[in-house]
UniProtKB/TrEMBL annotation:
Source organism (scientific name): Geodermatophilus sabuli
One BP annotation, GO: photosynthesis, light reaction
Pfam family, one: DUF2382
Protein name: Conserved domain-containing protein
PRC-barrel domain span: 6-75
Organism domain of life: Bacteria
Length: 302
């Protein structure tokens, strides 16, 4: 069961139908004005998530994977097109209940973005009879949410002399509350990309200069002296003879060895930029009708 304490976990979750098919992502939660309990969730659907449809939260389950609702994806796709303007009128809510075959509801529904404290709790109570719905609808058309009278709750009671509806309760006094929207800007973290390390092998040509040596034949001649006369006369006087010398030379030898040279890892750093956001904010203006300045016949706006 989805309660007020789990509203913040619902917003932004993936929404799945009763068979496990993904419908879209949860955008806003609407609360019942009488009970204060979550009643509806708007689900962003379509290729770019630009379409929002109302889905009932009755018998819905919140899991680690997302929000599972007891309706089909096709039913959500063909749901009545209702603007997500922050509050459901009694007629709009009754239309949704009839479409999803959920019976009727005893209250109107306001919206909350994250917590119960943000909910548009101001509204009128819709009765289950046709006459009550008609009365409530007129109040919604002629007044702002915070100014309309709880007609269904006061049905049959003489309210003559009542001037308005204070935000603190259904009783009226001689003052009217003026409200305006304020812009609350925050941030949320989402995945924008991924980076990975990949190692691959390339071949490069390396050139090194290595000194090498070799032996070459050199003929040396020496005259006959007293020192070598003995060796010169050793052997026959006239003969044929061969002498052989082995020549040696150095050749370059190449060996390759794999050695570690560095370690590489991925890390992240936070860079702070600024972005400008803008939104249209609504605020209520109060006009005083009648001769408010003696002799002028002019109206005043406060």
């Amino acid at each position: 069961m989805i309660g007020t304490e789990t509203i913040s976990r619902v917003i932004g979750k993936d929404v799945y139908d009763q068979s496990g098919q993904k419908i879209g992502s949860a955008s806003e939660v609407y609360l019942d004005d009488e009970t204060g309990q979550p009643e509806w969730v708007t689900v962003r659907t379509g290729l770019f998530g630009t379409k929002e449809s109302f889905v009932p939260l009755r018998n819905a389950d919140l899991t680690d994977d997302g929000l599972r609702v007891p309706v089909s994806k096709d039913a959500v796709k063909d749901a009545p097109k209702i603007d997500t303007d922050g509050h459901l009128s009694p007629q709009e809510e009754q239309e949704l209940y009839r479409y999803y075959d959920l019976g009727t509801t005893s209250g109107t529904t306001g919206r909350t973005d994250t917590t119960v404290g943000h909910a548009d709790r101001a509204g009128t109570t819709a009765g289950t009879t046709t006459g009550t719905e008609s009365t409530t609808g007129m109040a919604a058309a002629g007044m702002t949410d915070r100014d309309r009278t709880d007609r269904a709750g006061t049905a049959g009671v003489d309210t003559r002399g009542a001037v308005g509806r204070d935000t603190s309760g259904p009783t009226t006094d001689n003052a009217m509350t003026r409200s305006e929207e304020q812009l609350n800007v925050g941030t949320r973290t989402e995945e924008v990309g991924r980076a990975r390390l990949r190692k691959y092998v390339v071949t490069e040509n390396a050139t090194e200069t290595v000194p090498v040596s070799r032996e070459e034949v050199r003929v040396e001649r020496e005259p006959i002296t007293d020192a070598n006369i003995g060796n010169a006369l050793d052997g026959p006087a006239i003969s044929e003879e061969e002498h052989e010398v082995t020549l040696r030379a150095e050749r370059p030898v190449v060996e390759k060895e794999a050695v570690p040279v560095e370690r590489v890892r991925l890390d992240t750093e936070t860079v702070t930029d600024t972005e400008t956001v803008n939104a249209d904010l609504r605020k209520e203006q109060i006009e005083v009708d009648g001769d408010t300045e003696r002799g002028t016949g002019r109206d005043r706006r406060v």
